[in-house]
Amino acid sequence: MKNKSYFLGLIKWNAKKYNLNISFNNPSLSLFTDRTQYYIIYCFLSGLAIFFGLLRISLFYTLAARSAINLHIAMFNKVFKTSIRFFDINPIGRIINRFSNDTGLLDDIIPSTISDFMNVFMTVVGSISLTLFLNYWLLFPTIALAIFFIFIRNYYLTTSMEIKRIEGIVRSPIFVHTGNTLSGISIIRAANMEEKLNQEFNDHVDFHTRASSTSIYINRWLGIRLDSITIIFTYITLTSCLLIKKYRLLEIDSGEIGLMLVYLLQSTSLFQWAIRQSCEVENLMTSVERVLEYSELETEPLDKGDRKPPTGWPSNGEITFDNVSFRYDKNLSYVLNDMNIKINAGEKIGIVGRTGAGKSSIIQTLFRMAEPDGYLYIDDINIKELSLHDLRSKLSIIPQEPTLFIGTIRTNLDPLNEYTDNVLWDALAQVQLKETIKEMKDGLESEVHKGGSNLSVGQKQLICLARAIIKKSKILIIDEATANVDFKTDAMVQEAIRECFKDCTVITIAHRLHTIIDNDRILCLSQGRVVNFGRPYELIEDDTTILHDLVFSLDKHERVKLIDVAKEKYINYEIPFTHF
Ligand SMILES: Nc1ncnc2c1ncn2[C@@H]1O[C@H](COP(=O)(O)OP(=O)(O)OP(=O)(O)O)[C@@H](O)[C@H]1O
């Protein structure tokens, strides 16, 4: 009843304002003779609008921020735990692109675009509803124009989404190129390749600009069509109102026509903006799609295993390959075939072979970077029965590129903070780094820059070695660095390995023969197959072996030195080997 009174009061006020001849004999109309009440209602409604507006914005942005955070966490967790194969087939620039650009869009642009779209869309819907309410004849042209508009919008979207996708793809090479250029800046300068690299960078930028400018052009294409639609709609509204008035098809007065036109003209630009933003939201959803793709990656089952290894495993370090084959992916061919070898506890094994023979793939097999076929035992436990975490935590590796993390010497030696200072200093002493680290201002707390860039290659290798000593693994795998370390450091590393790991099984992927020539046995690989496996001197003496070929391809001085070392080792150490 009260609502009705307010409504009648409003009509009365409008009637007075526009000088309309309406009878207000109804006693209820006399309720609103005082304008103050309308101001109060107006203020109340404005207050409600502000309240709900703020509530809507805060709820919406909180929700958007939470979604972005959750998506980022999900993507990070999956990428972090996914298989190594993923990093083989996805360049680092592509991954950075998703973590930077796509996540950035998710954080800033997508929420504001959606909010903007909803705002403007509701305003446009309001304007059109009011127009249709006052002049329902406009329903027919509205439907016709809506169909036309949906057609144009879909036509635009098919192209623009594809262009956005291409834009995302061609952005990645810019990141890759920049990263590679920065990491190899000294080599580029030394080789005087700045011009070439600059040209390559410009080419990548050009590709990206082509895609992004096409995106802008098709946006303009859409804009022109949308403007045309709104102009046609305004024209039809106006003409229809004039015709309606002339032929008295509807009771409509000039005030209402004015009101319709004001709203329609106001919504002309808003209409275009609403459609553009709706398309933009769909386009931007490709970023959400890309983030979702990474957040649904398959992860390695790190903690899943059929068996828990006994404490102290592996106590001997005996490794048996029983018919082991390995490939990097189900769709690729095998790179190691039917390996049948037994490495005895505490043996020092060197692996040689031409490039691509499968030397590094043996490491991938031991760490189960992809699942090998056959049976691979360490101290009588089939490693395929263990969880990846249990397996990997028991093996130590010194990779070709010694990896150090941003942090301190301490965090690099003992990332999980499990050992005392004494243990860390002892390990540093064993690799002859104690004095060097002591001389640093902050000792164990001295800073290590990204990738250990403030340390020499040799020092990085020695820190990796100290890390392996601290871990006390029974099995050490060394992917010998191809990067040149000076002779003295190399000798120091070799000596440290011999001393600190004399009771451990050490497998060395050799790129230089002098580092493995005094090993107990040498495994020769060719095209992923074991060709020879035996004592170095025996293999050198046999002119059908790969080691013989490798040794005899060296100059005489080197060759004689290697043969002497192998012979001495052969004469002095007789170890009974069990050949599998
Ligand atoms: N990540 C990978 N994905 C797919 N195939 C790979 C991968 N790494 C190596 N391969 C393939 O496996 C085979 C053996 O490579 P591997 O790196 O084990 O040889 P290698 O003897 O260590 O060579 P190098 O002495 O040059 O390091 C090669 O044919 C190589 O193309």
Number of distinct beta strands: 12
User: What coarse outline follows from CA principal-axis ratios?
Assistant: elongated
| Percentage of residues assigned to helices | 55-70%
Strand order of the largest sheet: 6-9-10-3-11-12
The largest pleated sheet is described as: 6 strands, mixed
Q: In percent terms, what proportion of residues is strand?
A: 5-15%
Residue stretches low in confidence (pLDDT < 50, at least 5 long) are: 1-8, 576-580
Structural class: alpha/beta
Mean pLDDT: 84
CATH topology of the largest domain: ABC transporter transmembrane region fold
- For the record, the CATH class of the largest domain is Mainly Alpha
Sketch the topology as an H/E string, one letter per element: HHHHHHHHEEEHEEHEEHHHEHEHEEEHHH
Number of domains: 2
| Straight-line distance between termini | 99 Å
Q: Compounds present?
A: adenosine-5'-triphosphate
